[in-house]
Automatic annotation (TrEMBL):
One of its GO terms (biological process) is innate immune response. The keyword Chloroplast does not apply. InterPro entries: CRAL-TRIO_dom, CRAL-TRIO_dom_sf, CRAL/TRIO_N_dom, CRAL/TRIO_N_dom_sf, GOLD_dom, GOLD_dom_sf, PRELI/MSF1_dom, SEC14/CRAL-TRIO_domain. It comes from Daubentonia madagascariensis (Aye-aye). PROSITE patterns: CRAL_TRIO, GOLD, PRELI_MSF1. The keyword Metal-binding does not apply. Residues 526-679 form the GOLD domain. This is SEC14-like protein 1.
Amino acid sequence: MVQKYQSPVRVYKHPFELIMAAYERRFPTCPLIPMFVDSDTVNEFKSEDGAIHVIERRCKLDIDAPRLLKKIAGVDYVYFVQKNSLNSRERTLHIEAHNETFSNRVIINEHCCYTVHPENEDWTCFEQSASLDIKSFFGFESTVEKIAMKQYTSNIKKGKEIIEYYLRQLEEEGITFVPRWTPPSITPSAESSSSSSSSSSKQQAASSTIVIPDAALKEGLSSEALGSPGGAPEPVVGTPDDKLDADYIKRYLGDLTPLQESCLIRLRQWLQETHKGKIPKDEHILRFLRARDFNIDKAREIMCQSLTWRKQHQVDYILDTWNPPQVLQDYYAGGWHHHDKDGRPLYVLRLGQMDTKGLVRALGEEALLRYVLSINEEGLRRCEENTKVFGRPISSWTCLVDLEGLNMRHLWRPGVKALLRIIEVVEANYPETLGRLLILRAPRVFPVLWTLVSPFIDDNTRRKFLIYAGNDYQGPGGLLDYIDKEIIPDFLSGECMCEVPEGGLVPKSLYRTAEELENEDLKLWTESIYQSASVFKGAPHEILIQIVDASSVITWDFDVCKGDIVFNIYHSKRSPQPPKKDSLGAHSITSPGGNNVQLIDKVWQLGRDYSMVESPLICKEGESVQGSHVTRWPGFYILQWKFHSMPACATTNLPRVDDVLASLQVSSHKCKVMYYTEVIGSEDFRGSMTSLESSHSGFSQLSAATTSSSQSHSSSMIS
């Protein structure tokens, strides 16, 4: 497996030229890097104007590895080749390095880049990326991988320290400024002699033993050095909007190891590529990574499921669009109450005083769930505010649960069922948001409740639970260790008045019948404008749109939740037969609206009974796609999501290994999509064909929260 690393952007608040002067002092050897024994210059090139300087070194490293492993490998030192390409005109330094030793067994590539800060020309940015691929190593592949990653991460940590060390050294020598490169002045005599000396300079260049590295041509020699701009490669460092700064990570996200920073950046980049537009906040991405111990694949899977869930139920708007029923405001004994000693927002829940049975009977399970979701959304908002107030990263909150009054009434089966579902939803969509859970005055019945709910709680979350029986919370190691005395609630013998509702029994007059609750629950979770569908191999999902007026606009927005699909649009002058459910009903998904419908009859022929009006669009798992199509004729349009099969190798009938592995990842050849479509009159459609805004369209609101695919379709050109 190839290990990859991507650093954040590290900013030096010094000019580029001064940083280069400090960087050059690392050679031929650096005492601050004990493993860096020596280096020899292999090739060197300088352009005539001095703007381009390319130097290639062979570096000798003493890797900290077990002596037995070195003996088996038959080497004491490892050699790397490093090529530095300095462009003083563009103020960039590109560094490329690869291993020379064991290059047929281990492939190591590294690329580093120093550039000028995009917003302050007196600052310098640094970024690096690397990859490690161990093909084979005498049966010690895993050991070598661990050693390599350990050595690399330790050197990454030292990188900035080394530059700052040499900057201080320069300052001690009185060097605090290095002038920028300026093109040499050309005198008339030099111009007249340039033509006569050109032939001799060519001969001299031809006989020179100095080799011009390829990077010199890429760095600008073939273009800028000869007068045409744009020869330097595209800088790695971008704007602060699309790159993460190391100082920003430390200030707002906390202290991360180099590999944790890399995981965050790589997952963020993947989201930017597949969810073009709005992506989750960095704090939210980091929570999913922490929940899966920084395993990118696992974190990406659960995060994509959560993003789809949030989009389907419009959770992003819950604080602005949903008002809790009065029953919840009066009888739900929970609320926010200042913060703990670590600055985390503090939520107080008087569960023992809450009539869970009455709330479920009066409101239903879905209303309670939605209220808990609004509490979690408010918690995320408060974490952001406290991060700004306290000047340090705060990404979770503390929950104080008072169980005084808990009895068998709270173990009412439907109430426990609702609690378990709430825990399941919160665990899946708000990982690593609970910093600490303080359970106070736990009665004898608590172990029964704990036995029921603990299997549904993640192990990492369970470790954050602190349980106190009776008045133990008042002693050593109790509440005062986590909450300031001034804000301990009055009902816990504290001095602070707590505005959390006291709960109490919900009047039976507010109870509702099972039919009313069922209809209300259905209403709550069918407010989503999205529908879900299953797509099987050989069984696409199709929807029918009838167009009466030509030049109408069909718009769509869909997420590929699982597998890869092909999206098609067809037109027919006659209506298909009534939709028939696919025989694979046993495979249908269970979410609301999950189905598989096929409209195109098997006897229909493409080109005779129906025609394709857009080129097929292949959509990968996790992608969010929006688009539109201007209809040219009235009739029936069919939107189709079809299972995407991996193409076989062109030179052989045997499938490729990658194709087989990819097909195995799609369980039972099943894909899932979540979609929304809408027909807009041409007079109401605003903007370009890939814009989803309309004066009457539901997409007007969606466009602020969902993403526009660069592959969106324009008007049809196929008859």
